[in-house]
Amino acid sequence: MKSKGAIIIHSIFWGIILLLALATIFIGGAKQTTKDYVFSYGLFSVLNLSMFYINYIILIPELIQKRKKYWLYILAFILLILVCVLVKTVIAALYPEDLLKTINRRNVAHYMSINEYALISTFFSGFILVSSCIIKFSVDWFSNESVQRNLESEKKDMELQFLKSQLNPHFLFNSLNNIYSLAYQKSDKTADAILKLSEMMRYMIYESNDSWVALSKEVEYVQSYIELHKLRFKDGAAVQFTLNGEIDGQQIVPLILISFVENAFKHGVANDHDDPIKDQYHCQPKNPSF
Question: Considering the entire predicted model, what is its pTM?
C-alpha cells in the first residue's frame, strides 16, 4: 500500500467488516460474555487479516503478476481457505462453549454443529479472499493509470522542451541577423524589431512552460513572428494572415503553430505579392483546446 488511496480503500473495507460484526452483536440478540467476544472476534480477526494480506502481498504479486502461474494461484487460493477453515474449526471444536454456543434473549443456549460452523467459515473465508483480490486489482489498476498519465505528461513536457530547444536557437539567430541588417542600414525599424524580439523571447522562456497556454497569447506570438520577418523586406513580406472565430478563453499547446509559420517562410516565396504566404486559423468558440 504505497498510496493514500490504497490506505483509504483498506480502511473502508475493514471498517465495514467491523460494523457488520457490531451489528451482529447488537441486533442478533445473542447473549455472550466479553470474554466470548474477545476470544471469537479477536482470534478470528487475526486469522482473517493474515489470510487477506497473504493473498494481497504474496500470492497475487508472486503467482499472478510476476510469474503468471494462474493454476498454481487457484490451488494456493483454495489451500489458503482450507487451512484457515481447518484452523477455525479445530479451535471451535476445542472451545465449543466459547465459539459454538450462543444464548438468546430468553437465556436459552443453542449449540451450532461443527459442520455448520465449518460451512459458515468457508463462505466467510472465501469472501475475505475474493475481497482481497478485488481490492488488490482495483488499487493496482488505479495506480497504473496514474503512472501512465504521469508518463504521458512527462513525455509531452519532454517533447515540448525538445521543440523549444530546436526552435529557440534557430529563431534567435535568424532574428538577430535580421536586426543586424536593419541596424547596418540605420533603419528606423530597428528599435521596433528589438522590442518585438524581446516580447517573443519573454513568451518563449517564461510563458510557454505550461502544458497549455492561452490561445490569444499564442496568436500574438505568431503575429509578432510574422511582423518581425516582414521587417526583412523593403516593401514588407507578402503574407496574408487570417483569423476566424473567437480565441478568448481557449487554450492550446504552446509553440505548436510557430513551426508551420516558420516552414512557410523557409520554403515559401515571401516577396511575391500576387501569391502571398497564407496563414489561416479557424477557432471554434467555447472549445477548451485549439
Answer: 0.55
